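Researcher: Here's the sequence for the chain we discussed earlier.
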Amino acid sequence: MVSCVGGCVALAVLVCVFCTRRYQAFGEIQVQKDSSDALGLDSMMGGAEDASDALDANITLQTQADLLESDTLALQVIEALELETTRDYQPRYDALGSIFRLLSPSGPADPLNASLENSPRRRTRALKIFDANLNVKVVSGTRLIEVRFLSSDPVLAAKVVNQLMDGLVEYNFQTRFTATNQASEWLTGQLSDLKKQAEALQARVIALQRQSGVVSLGVQDAQGRDQAYSVIVDRLQQATATLSQATSNRILKGAVYKIVQSGNAELISGLSANGIVSGSPTLSTSLGLIQSLRMQEAALQGQIAQDTSKFGPSYPRLMDSRANLSGMESAIEDEVHRVAERSKNDYEIARREEDESRTEFATEKHQADSLNDKAIEYAIVRQEADDSRGLYEDLLKRLKEAGVLEGLRSSNITVVDPGRIPSTPKQPNIPVYLAIAAGVGLFLGVCGAFISDSIDDKIQTIEEIERDLELVPLGILPHLGEPNWYRRPGGPSLSRARSPSSGVNSLAIFAHPNSPYTEALRGLRTALLLAKSSAPPQLLLITSSVAGEGKSILSANLAAVLAQSGRRVLLVDADLRKPSLGDRLGMESRTGLSQYLTDERSPEDILEVGRLPKLHLLTSGPVPPYPADLLGSLRMMEALDRWRGYYDFIVLDSPPVLLVTDPVVLASLADATLLVARYGMTNRLSLARSHRTLMDQSTQDRVGIVLNGVSQGSPFHYEYYGHSGSLGYPEIHGGKHVDA
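Model: Thanks. This is the structure I predict for it:
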């Protein structure tokens, strides 16, 4: 985890040091509401109302923001400022893009000396770089739009922001001007057609007026309508009056005729009193005469009645009176007959006059109907002519207003903050980069730790050994460090290690007599001496799964600890393939184990280890061709039997189990086998396989596990000893206490 965090932070520091400084220019514009011009002509043209809802405002702001990010404005800025010649637009190698271009078909190449607009590849690349450096944001809750642009040149960044905002203002102005100009052109075309149509309708109105005979008087009534005079209408009115009068006269004459036909002189005489016959003088005279005769008749009848009652019916004058009365009655009848003839003639005349008047009225009515149809058509055409003239005048007015609006229209975009040259670079943002690097490194470290822990099969806990091998380790050896004699032959300190005194003095019991490692060796010695069998194992075989797990170091130190307890110990370097004990202990011998086993005449050349008189060493000797055969030979068995009678313990240092078969041969001869495993290094599967291989040649009680190189601060050390760190006891060197 620390490595990942450190690596990422170091990489971030390198990026901050070597990456190009990029500056960000800032600009801000305000999008105002659409308002009418100073003369109020915008409202006449059907412009936007003053009030608009929040949705319209948001749509307007987003539209303007999208216009700022449009390719059209971007290309204008790129060409105006010649951005293609700047460093940011120079071609760079893109490995991923090259791979994609190989996999995908490429289009035609750009024409030579073509403009940016006509060069698809150049245009696409330039727009991609421009868009990557541009940031447009609508400020929430306001009518402001922020424009930011990144560039390696601070002056150029400010120019791009200002050019982009000016381009938006010009685009809006040009859009409105173009729309107004197009409207003017359309109105001009419509006016020409409307003028012709109005003139045609006006000519038709005049023609219909002439055909109808209607004469305009040039005045208007209360409703504002023009007053006109028509001869046909005047004649129709006269014919209507004549027909009405003739009908009335015919009705009166018919009534008189009906009364006269009754022959009742009393009724006939009453016609004069009622005034019904006042319109006929002759008839009136006749009716007056009848009335006068009726009065005389009444007087004569009264006189006869008086004379009869006074003088009697035989009075002579009564005869004359009665004769006069008879003549008078005859005169009345004659006059009534004449009146009847006259009334009949008057009735016939009145009826003919009525018929003539009706015929004349029908004629005038027909002409009036024709006039009415023409009048209706005239009114319709006149209305169309008035509408066409009104529309023409209105459009002509709008056309004049549109010409004025072309000069009065202004943009609703206001620059609040122009692009200014930035003082400090925007990128790299060192605190942010370092924080991101630390976060990424921590994340990668945690992931790597989990992955490493999940795939790590090295021995880390006691439970792993108990679970895999079903036994408890015989000993746990803390990590002691790397003294000089621990190093392999040929290492940097080999020349010093060849000194007998320096090699023996480097043993743990001399270099660190009271260290945790030495105490652990003594604990292992005690465990071997207190074995469950009746006698402790005399012949010990020490091996490991693979090389580098510390078996040779353990063999030398364990033999020294056993010899320190007063027992005679023989340390045999049985690793005939890659011997190391002689060189590590700084002791040399002309012959060794291999020479002794090969040549029956060769004596045993057993060396005495300095400072430990009871510890003897038998080196491996020259490397033989067949080591396994020599170790399993009868001579080897005889030597072991002889050594058993002379030494209390025989410690054999053998090669690793999984590499050669030598340890398997020796395991069948040994009393006990110590299989060395190194903490954090030995693979659990390798340890289990080695243990199983050795178990096939011995019993379970004769194979023990010794875990070597356990860190004193590890959980493994705590689980075994119950604490972490050192034992806490000081070492004594020359009468002084030194912490182990």
